[in-house]
């Protein structure tokens, strides 16, 4: 069912629709090398096949991970003789440097039109030398209507599809096939083929494919992602952002997808990060509860781990939020990297070694516990940073409200003493 012409490509109309970039290239016969990236089964190889079929150029397919440099040399020799070859290179993110170095000159002279395919983010996973010589296009998951169209075409196509078989696909089964494969047309067609060829025809010779048959044939179907794929990290990102946005149902949904993929490690790490980054001082109890939930999840493992993890997710979603701690330390690091630091005040320097007193180390240091309320005014920041404020308290929770009140009291007392000290020095 692989398309032989650009008009036969299912979905991806933002690339192959009328007036869109790949369609323009094909119509003008001005092809350039490109990288197509997106989830499995969404049409990367199909687009390459359709481009070759529409332009009548020779078409070859290789895999960057399994095919050798010698295989590339064969394609290059063919390109020299025929003029132009379209090379579909799957898993291009796994292209080794020797293969890359061989390929680059052929891309430069235009003998080979490279169409690379990858499920990885090319801006992260692909070498800049290849990336700079290609256009990058994102291939998106197909819609349910796109998959339904392709399935119906497969059922009627007598040459390449299942049209010679007498198949009846129920509406319920079709709907489930289109929705449960999550935009992966290859999975949908593979499931349909398995269902058709493994179902015994009835007395009339009809192969009835109902919901139960489809469920058995596509197995783990809907929301499971490749743990190493780009889409998996998108789910992790959506998981944290849903908790940050206090959407319990969305957060549980994305965690469910991570559980189905078996990625307990990412869930635990992300929850611990969220507890301190997004909830933080607004509700320290939630952070402690999260640590307990993650510890329990690690000890009992999946599938039972889903229970304490769900408790943690709901708690974090509905907790007051504050990012004041991460903002404070990031403000400090930004300042330091810009040169915002100075010499440690003399009275704060290490004074435990022999001879430190002669150097004035630790002189005039005031031990706070010797004063009422275990506090006394003295300078702690370097001279050039006196008065600098990195921490800006929030008031979304009672705990941080109390911290803010205490912070402001101490700041005020410190400034009052500093003002009096400045006045005395003027007098």
Automatic annotation (TrEMBL):
One GO MF term: ATP binding
Q: Keywords on this record?
A: ATP-binding, Coiled coil, Nucleotide-binding
List, for all copies, the residue spans of the domain called AAA+ ATPase: 30-142
Coiled-coil boundaries: 396-423
Superkingdom as given in the UniProt entry: Bacteria
Q: Which InterPro entries match?
A: AAA+_ATPase (IPR003593), AAA_assoc_2 (IPR032423), AAA_ATPase_RarA/MGS1/WRNIP1 (IPR051314), ATPase_AAA_core (IPR003959), DNA_pol3_clamp-load_cplx_C (IPR008921), MgsA_C (IPR021886), P-loop_NTPase (IPR027417)
Signal peptide residue numbers: none
* CDD domains assigned: AAA, HLD_clamp_RarA
- Transmembrane ranges, per UniProt, are none
Gene3D superfamilies noted in UniProt: 1.10.8.60, 1.20.272.10, DNA polymerase III clamp loader subunits, C-terminal domain, P-loop containing nucleotide triphosphate hydrolases
Example GO BP: DNA-templated DNA replication
Q: SUPFAM superfamilies, from UniProt? A: P-loop containing nucleoside triphosphate hydrolases (SSF52540), post-AAA+ oligomerization domain-like (SSF48019)
Q: Which family does it belong to?
A: Belongs to the AAA ATPase family. RarA/MGS1/WRNIP1 subfamily.
Q: What is this protein called?
A: Replication-associated recombination protein A
Species whose genome carries this gene: Liquorilactobacillus aquaticus DSM 21051
């Amino acid at each position: 069912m692989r398309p032989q012409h650009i008009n036969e490509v299912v979905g991806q109309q933002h690339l192959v629709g009328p007036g869109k970039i790949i369609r323009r290239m094909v119509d003008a016969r001005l092809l350039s090398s490109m990288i197509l990236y997106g989830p499995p089964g969404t049409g990367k190889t199909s687009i390459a096949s359709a481009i070759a079929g529409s332009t009548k150029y020779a078409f070859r397919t290789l895999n960057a991970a399994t095919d050798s440099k010698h295989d590339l040399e064969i394609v290059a020799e063919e390109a020299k003789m025929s003029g132009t070859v379209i090379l579909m290179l799957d898993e291009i993110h796994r292209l080794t440097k020797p293969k890359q170095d061989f390929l680059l000159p052929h891309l430069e002279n235009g003998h080979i039109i490279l169409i690379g395919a990858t499920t990885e983010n090319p801006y992260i996973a692909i070498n800049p030398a290849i990336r700079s010589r290609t256009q990058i296009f994102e291939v998106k998951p197909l819609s349910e209507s796109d998959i339904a169209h392709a399935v119906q075409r497969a059922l009627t196509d007598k040459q390449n599809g299942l049209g010679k078989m007498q198949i009846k696909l129920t509406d319920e089964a079709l709907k489930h096939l289109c929705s449960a494969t999550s935009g992966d047309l290859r999975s949908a067609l593979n499931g349909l083929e398995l269902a058709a060829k493994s179902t015994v025809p009835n007395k009339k010779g009809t192969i009835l494919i109902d919901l139960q048959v489809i469920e058995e044939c596509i197995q783990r179907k809907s929301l499971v992602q490749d743990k190493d794929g780009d889409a998996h990290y998108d789910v992790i990102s959506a998981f944290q952002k849903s908790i940050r946005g206090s959407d319990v149902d969305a957060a549980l949904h994305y965690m469910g997808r991570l559980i189905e993929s078996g990625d307990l490690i990412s869930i635990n790490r992300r929850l611990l990060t969220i507890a301190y980054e997004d909830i933080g001082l607004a509700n320290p109890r939630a952070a402690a509860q999260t640590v307990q939930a993650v510890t329990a999840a690690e000890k009992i493992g999946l599938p039972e781990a889903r229970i304490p993890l769900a408790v943690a997710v709901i708690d974090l979603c509905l907790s007051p939020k504050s990012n004041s701690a991460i903002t404070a330390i990031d403000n400090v690091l930004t300042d330091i990297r810009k040169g915002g630091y100075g010499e440690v005040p003399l009275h704060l320097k290490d004074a435990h070694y022999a001879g430190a007193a002669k150097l004035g180390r630790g002189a005039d240091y005031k031990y706070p516990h010797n004063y009422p309320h275990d506090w006394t005014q003295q300078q702690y920041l370097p001279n050039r940073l006196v008065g600098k404020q990195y921490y800006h308290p929030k008031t979304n929770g009672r705990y941080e409200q109390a911290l803010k009140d205490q912070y402001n009291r101490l700041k005020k007392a410190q400034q009052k003493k500093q003002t009096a000290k400045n006045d005395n020095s003027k007098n």
